[in-house]
Amino acid sequence: MSDLYHKVSNSPVGRSVVSALNLPAPVILERQSRPDAPFLEGDVLLSGAPGGSALETICTVLGASTASLFALDAKSLVTAGDIKSKTKVYSLKSDAIDEQRRFKALVFDATGISTTEDLKAVYTFFHPIIRNVAKCGRIVIVGTEPSSCRTPAMAASQKALEGFIRSVAKETGKKGITAQVIYAIPGSESHIESPLRFCLSPRSAYVSGQTLSVSKAAKSRASLDWNSPLKGKVALVTGASRGIGEAIAKTLSRDGAKVVCLDVPQAKDALESVAANIGGTTLALDITTPVAPEVISAHFEKQFDGLDIIVHNAGITRDKTLGRMPEHFWDLLVDINLSSEERINDALFANEVFNKNARIVCVSSISGIAGNVGQSNYAASKSGVIGYVESLSKQLKGGITINAVAPGFIETQMTAAIPFMIREAGRRMNSLNQGGQPEDVAEAIAFFSSPASQGVNGNILRVCGQSLIGK
Ligand code: NAD
User: Fold this and answer.
1) Ligand 1 pocket: which residues have CB below 6 Å?
2) Going by CATH, does the domain composed of 234-463 fall within 3.40.50.720?
3) Which CATH architecture has domain 31-214?
C-alpha cells in the first residue's frame, strides 16, 4: 500500500509546498539495506551517571560496530578516562561541539541513578547535545528495571526515564530519530547486547518511545554469527501468504532460518510463491480447524527435528460497533486471533515439539492497548494476546521465551481496507508522521527470535512509530 503524501512531500516540489503550508513532512526512514550491513555507523556520544554497571558492556557491544565512540568531558558524568574498556573512547569537550556536528547515536548508562536528585544526570548529558543528533539517529538509555529496584526512590528515578524518553522521542521523531530505554534487572547487563544492537540499528526504524526489559538467563556458550543468527533454526509463520506474515517469513529466512509458511488453503497459490522465493516450505491449513494443533505438531515432529521459532501472526478484523456486531464476528475473530494460538502452543508443549531455547512470538496490536471504536472483538483478542504472553513468560523453562509485537498502522491490505480519512489519520498520528512497513514488524520479530535475545522474555514491543494513541 503506498503513501502518496509521503512520496510527494519528499519530492523537490512537494518539499517546498509542505514547508510553505507548515504541514508535517515525514522523512524517509533508514532501514536495513543488507543483512551484513554494520548495525551502527558514524559518531556515537556516550556517557553515564557515576556508579553505573552497563557502560563496559555498552562499549564492548559498540566496539563490534564501525562507529567511533566519544564521551563528553563533563562534570558529574562518566568521562572517557573513567571508562574501563578495550574499545577506544575519545574524549570530547562540550564547548568543542558546534551546531553543525552530528552524532548518529547518543547512549547513556543510567543504571547508576538511585535517587531522584541523581536524575539530573540525564538533563546534564542530553540537554546540550540533543539538537546534534543526526537524521534517523538513535537515542538509547540503559537503566535498571524499576520493579527490581531496592528502594522507592530508586524505582521512581528509574521509572522517570520512561517519561523522559517518551518525550524525547516525541520531540525528535520528526527527524526520523528514535529513542528507547532498555531496562536490565541487576546482574543481567551481559544480556543487553541483542536489544542494544536492535535499538541502535536501522532494524528498529519504526520503533520509538519504547521500553524493553532484560532479565537474567543462562548465556549461550556458542558464538553467534550476527549476519545469520537463525542459521540451523526451523521457524513456523502463520498467515504467511501476504502482508506482515510474508515479510516475517522473508526476514527470518534472510537471517538463516528454514521457514515453514502457513496460511488458509484458499491462499495456497500466494503461499507457495512466498515459500518458493525464500527456499521455504508450505503448510496450507486453517488454524481454527480442530485438527490444526495436532497436524502442526506432527509436521514438525516428522519433517524436522522439532520447532525452534513460532510466529503467531495470522489474524483478522471484523469491525462493527458492539451493538451492531453479529455473534459470528466475535466468535470467528477470537478463535483465529487468540484461542487457536493457545491451542497450537498447548499441543506443541504437550508433544514436546519445541526445542530447547525455542522462541514464541505473538502479534498483538496497539488496538489491544488503547481500544478502538468498532473493534471491541479485535481489541479484546489483541489485549488477550498481551495477557497470555505476560503470564506464559513466567512459566517457561528450558530457555524458551515468549514475547509479542504490537504493530500500529502498518501499510498492508488490512489497513488498505480502512476508509480514507481514518486511514490518513492513522498514518500521521505518530511521532514519525507515517505508517510503518511490514518489514518493520518483521525486524522486531527477528530480534525476539534471535538466540542472542535469551534475556528478553515477556516483552510487548510496540512497532508503531510512537503512535499517539495508547501508552
Ligand atoms: P493480512 O490480512 O494482510 O494477513 C493476515 C493473514 O492471516 C492472511 O494471509 C490470512 O489468510 C491469514 N489468516 C487469517 N485467518 C487464518 C486462519 N484461520 N488460518 C490461517 N491463516 C489465516 O493482515 P496483516 O496486516 O498482514 O496482519 C498480520 C497480523 O498483524 C494480524 O494478526 C493483525 O491483526 C496484526 N496487525 C496488523 C496491523 C496493520 O496495520 N496491518 C496492525 C496491528 C496488528
Assistant:
1) 238-239, 241-245, 263-264, 267, 286-288, 313-316, 336, 363, 365, 407, 409-410, 412-415
2) yes
3) 3-Layer(aba) Sandwich (3.40)
Q: Which residue has the cell 522439532?
A: 306
Contact predicate 139/175, CB 8 Å: no
Ligand 1 atom with minimal separation from the 242 CA? 9
pLDDT in tens, 188-218: 988 999 999 999 999 999 999 999 999 988 7
Atom 10 (ligand 1) nearest CA: 239
Instruction: Tell me how far apart the alpha carbons of residues 196 and 61 are, in angstroms, rounded to a whole number.
Output: 8
Q: Which of 268, 410, 462 to mutate to test the pocket of ligand 1 (most atoms within 8 A of CB)?
A: 410
Q: How confident is the model at residue 129 (pLDDT cuts 50, 70, 90)?
A: very high
- Candidates 177, 133, 183; CA nearest to 161 is 183
> What does the pLDDT look like over 69-85, one tens digit per residue?
999 888 889 989 888 88
Confidence bin at 35 (pLDDT 50/70/90): confident
The answer to whether residue 409 scores a pLDDT higher than 90 is: yes
Q: Do the domains 234-463 and 31-214 match in fold?
A: yes
Instruction: Report how far ligand 1's centroid is from the alpha carbon of 437 (Å).
Output: 14
Edge-first strand order for the sheet with 178-184 is: 89-92, 68-72, 43-48, 103-109, 133-144, 178-184, 210-214
Structure pTM? Answer: 0.95
User: How does pLDDT run across 138-196, given as a tens digit for each residue?
Assistant: 999 999 999 999 999 999 999 999 999 999 999 999 999 999 999 999 989 889 999 99
What is the pLDDT at residue 141? 98
The answer to whether 183 is a known catalytic residue is: no
Catalytic residue among 5, 206, 378, 388, which? Answer: 378
CB 347 within 8 A of CB 295: no
Shortest CA distance to 188 belongs to which of 147, 223, 151? 147
User: Which residue of 238, 251, 263, 312 sits with most ligand 1 atoms within 8 Å of its CB, as the best mutation to test the pocket?
Assistant: 263
**Cell triple for 389:** 504472553
- Ligand 1 atom 6 nearest Cα: 239
The single residue listed with the C-alpha cell 496497539 is 366
Going from N- to C-terminal start, the domains of the chain cover: 31-214, 234-463
- Of the residues 336, 369, 412, 424, which should be mutated to test ligand 1's pocket, given the most ligand atoms within 8 Å of the CB? 412
